[in-house]
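User: Predict chorismate mutase's structure from this.
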Amino acid sequence: MKRPADCKTMADIRAEIDRVDRELVRLLAERTGYIDRAAEIKGPLQMPARIASRVEEVVANVRREAVAQGLPPDLIEKLWRRLIDWSIAREEGVLGPEWEDHP
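Assistant:
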C-alpha cells in the first residue's frame, strides 16, 4: 500500500486505485451481509424494509463523515441514497413490499 504522495507513476496510481476498489467492494459485501440479516430479523417482527427515520439517520451520519474526510457531503449523500434504495429493495425481496413505511 502506497500513500498517494508516494506514487511516482500512473502504474502506481492505477494499482492503488484498483486495491482501494477491491476493498470498497469487500466492504460493500460485508454491509450487504448486515442488510440480509436485518431482513431475517425484521420478518418475524413484521417490520418494513424502509424505515424513514433510519434512512435519514444513516444519511446524516455519512454526511458528517464526508465533511470529516474532506469530501463533498452532497455527493456522498447522493451515493448513499442509491445504496440505501438498493439495500431496501434487497430487503423487500425477502420481506415483500407490502409493509408500509415506518416513521
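The mean pLDDT is 93.
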